[in-house]
Amino acid sequence: MTTTQEIYFDHLVIGSGLAGLSSALTLAERCQGEIAVVTKGAIDDCNSRLAQGGIACVIHNQDSFDEHLADTMNAGGNLCNAKNARQIIEAGPERIQWLTDTIGTHFTTRGEMGDPQLSHKNEYDLGREGGHLKRRILHSGDITGEEVERSLVAACRKEPRIHIFEQHIAVDLITKARLGRGMQDDICLGAYVLDTKSGEVKTFSALTTSIATGGCGKVYLCTCNSDVACGGGVAMAYRAYAKIANMEFYQFHPTLLYHPQVKNFLISEALRGEGGTLKMQYTKGVYTEFMQHYHEMKSLAPRDAVARAIDSELKRTGQSCAYLDMTHKDEAFLKMRFPRIYAQCLALGINIAKDPIPVVPGAHFSCGGVLTDTNGYTGIKGLYAVGETGCTGLHGANRLASNSLLETIVVPKLASDHIAANLDELRKNRPDFPIPPWTTGNATNSDELVVISHNWDEIRRFMWDYVGIVRTNKRLERAKRRIENIQREIDKYYWDFHITSDLIELRNIATTAQLIIESAMLRHESRGLHYNADYPQRDPSMDGVDTVIQKKY
Q: Which one of 248, 328, 329, 545 is most buried, counting C-beta atoms within 10 A?
């Protein structure tokens, strides 16, 4: 393994999903200088591309910011930061206009859905999802994430100041404190990045670094996340002494397609918004609704309630899956509104206009992350975290459906404004000492890939069993002992051998698992996505109280 000399950019963005590319484009609009985007795979290999539902946003006078905020707070179990949530919600309409007018994103209109009224044909076709009392979800069929990602990638490729480095995985952040130059007035100087094609570890030096690496679904055995979702941004920020908040609130999507030939395929919550009902097959050939026994909103309840209800029914009955019934809609509507889901299911022999869809819960979204304000600022000068990597307080204890994509286009804009306002100070205060190149010490090559594979599988299995939808103190203690042992193994392995992308991801998954476990053990109540059977009641004294973890200096 070799190292290279320092590569300088004014701004470094780690990650190429919606939050990362939004960051790069708004930095190009608001700030001078060159921008690097590093991404571990291809530029569009991200969780964002898989998003089916849409973007929650108030765009007409039959809805209001107050109502959107109320739904957000209700879903979030009174743990959302109301001030921050309102700021993000109110910024939504302007960012939607940015996407459509500047970036070229297309959202489905009522005319495209066959609305016969000429006066309505150019209006957006708004969907509804769990936890929303109004229709406010802008979508592009059922491939909204793919459409927004497509338009952002095209815009980035047209901007000459944005430089894209594919097949580059960030190893660690470079900060003054981590270089042993003092803890006071810590500042981020960039990141060490492994070029997976050449094997070089490059030093990316920058005035600002924006982490936009997405979520950490691969820490769990069953997930709808892409393979890149390994919690790298949170893990790197934790190792750089940033504060990490609310990692115990991990959202399990209630409806992943249950089929032996397909993994990780999500059945959008928008189907329930169009009247889909959750059912169990208690008697062969007979499908019976059950959500009325769990929540007043029935099948349109927030995700935490629905996931727990399905989990409870599966454990109670011993059955393998629940079912989502869309047979009240005809084929023409389903093909138009949900073309990809319809086609995928049909290829497996499931005609969703005639057959209920087999579904199970799966790991989906982290409501916690690097603690930031709405500007994405971490408290370490020059370091920002946006998208699922950050924790602004918008989601609280449970994310309201389609608020995540809203956050990915709003917070990068606010972060770019903050960077523009502080850029002169960052230039003035940047340390003048050289950044040392990455060193491998006495590390050697290793052919023991089985060690990485075994530890990876073990983490995912015990996280699913012990730190999943329903938790107990005993299960959390078991998970804590297991992760501590694995962490010691990984630490020794990491420093003894040359790093690879697999080893980097394993290290990050282990750190993220540790943070989820520790956060869950610190919260002595059940709230939102954190359901501990030993703490069945929400503690009102904990309203608005975050669980914050910071690595000791």
A: 248
Spatial neighbors of 426 by CB under 8 A, at least 6 apart, are 187, 207, 208, 381, 382, 419
Phi-psi category of 254—alpha, beta or left, where left has phi over 0 and alpha has psi -120 to 50?
Answer: alpha
> Can you read off the two tokens belonging to residue 252?
């399990």
374 and 474 belong to one structural domain: no
Residues 131 and 261 in one domain: no
**Helices 82-90 and 403-429: crossing angle, nearest 10°?**
100
Positions annotated as catalytic residues are 303
Q: Does 2 have pLDDT greater than 90?
A: no
pLDDT at 448: 65
The answer as to whether 483 is a domain residue is yes
Cα dihedral 144, 149, 154, 155 sign: positive
List the structure tokens of 353: 């206009």
Residue keyed to tokens 């918008």: 394
* 406 and 348 both lie in a single domain: no
Q: Is the pLDDT of residue 446 over 80?
A: no
What residues make up the domain containing 529?
449-534
Distance CA 14, CA 80 (A): 26
304 and 182: one domain? no
Residue 221 has pLDDT above 80, yes or no: yes
**Phi and psi at residue 453, in whole multiples of 5°?**
-60, -45
Residues 89, 212, single domain; the answer is: yes
The residue with tokens 């998208």 is 387
* Domain count of the fold of the chain: 3
Give tens-digit pLDDT for 117-173.
877 888 999 999 989 999 999 999 989 999 999 999 999 999 999 999 999 999 999
d(CA 323, CA 288): 9
Residue 223 belongs to domain with CATH number: 3.50.50.60
Residues 244 and 258 in one domain: no
